[in-house]
Amino acid sequence: MEYYRRNLYILTFTNFLSASSWNQIVPFLPQFLRELNVQDGIEGWVGIIFSLNFVGGIIMQPLWGKISDMTGRKLMIVRAGLCLSFICFGMSFSTSPWQVAFFRFLNGALTGFMPGAIALIATNTPEEFSGRYVAIAQTGGAAGNILGPALGGLLSTFMGFRVAMRVSGFVVLIATLLVLFLVKEEKKVEQIEKTSLSQDFIAAIKMPVLISVMGTVMLATTISMSIQPILTFYLEMLDPSVSKILSGSIFSLPGLAFVFFAYRWASLGERISYPKVILIALVGVSMSTAALSLSSTVWQFVIIYFIVGLFLAALTPCAATLIATGVDKSFRGRAYGMQQSASLMGGALAPTISGLLGSAIGIKHTFLVMGSLVLLATGFLYFQMRTWVDFKTIREPDS
Fold first, then answer.
1. Are residues 149 and 256 in the same domain?
2. Residue 316's closest CA among 270, 367, 262?
3. Which of 135, 163, 167, 367 lies most in the core, judged by the most C-beta atoms within 10 Å?
4. Is the pLDDT confidence value at 387 over 50?
């Protein structure tokens, strides 16, 4: 078996283990705070704890990407896995909300297992296969995102939150050892020019491909994370008797859509070009998000929300493949780090935007406004892409 195919199987499986392990913890952090006897201001603590993860990632991911260009991607995956395992174990011993917040910051700042895995696959796979391989590896992570909360619910119910965290840490450690001993990285950058982070950002601004990628992933994360905080409230508006089990299942619909459709979008990108697929998907996301405001029953919302996830499934695989095919090999680690920072920035801004809109105009109209904003941003992205893509006769992207 070719080494890059074996890497795909191992990294898809370890992405699944890593994502499912971490998502055993995240949905239950508010309940864990109650277990720590946090009563007054618990909502504020929840906001801080979730935001610090984004803050740490925005600051550190470009740096880890730069180091991966110098040392190789495999080493960065192993580093991220060991750090995540330590964070899971460490959080299980927390006795105050400050300690939980500290570990959440470390999670954003020190981890990055899946971005590292995607970068290794993209740089060690023949370009004609890179789109499909990236989509498959990301599908493994999406499947973990779906299964993780259910496993976390079972573990925390029968063994408690702290044991669930330790199990997660142990599973991540197993995934890290699999990467260490079984993944092979043949294509490493032998030498890169020594630059500062500010010089790297200036260089990135001059790369039209990378600007398109960062815009794409920021839009994808913004729309996804803007819906999640208000989803349960809207479902209760549609049907006050909606069960928590059904609400949780609906919450996972975008991940389920990703599992089913990411590979198909990547295959379409190979045929008609990834920029075209990105623009088609963004238009679909904007229209379907706006259509959520028309829902009058929970089941109408379910159908439309799944369609939103269907279009969202196109964006991150196609964006990652553009880096693999359009950014110089010596800069790809930094490019993936900047892509991750753009995604985290969208995740940090989205809950605030949707919360303010929901308070000002109501949840139903928030979907309409968010869809309109995405459509407007898609127009700007189209004109930016025209600087490096000929949409009539697609040419190969320049770096």
1. no
2. 262
3. 367
4. yes
